[in-house]
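Review this:
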Amino acid sequence: TDAYIPLVFDPGEAFQFDWSHEKVVIAGAMTEVKIAHIRLCYSRLFLIVAYLRESQEMVFDAHLRQMVGSPAIGRLIMGELSFAFNPVR
């Protein structure tokens, strides 16, 4: 028996984050950019931000832009977050 469970979210409850590498032409030169993709789960609003470097700052800046740009701050749905933090020794 197949079961279907619809995903239902309250406004501001959650968002999803991912990134990709894309090639674009900037000032006539082929350049690889890193694209942060953020989707709000309730409204399905999609935010895309391009960066020249892939870094912790990119991840944090993209999340900050989502939080500032949306009326409610959601919790993060991400499979693995350990890549974003350096261990404190």
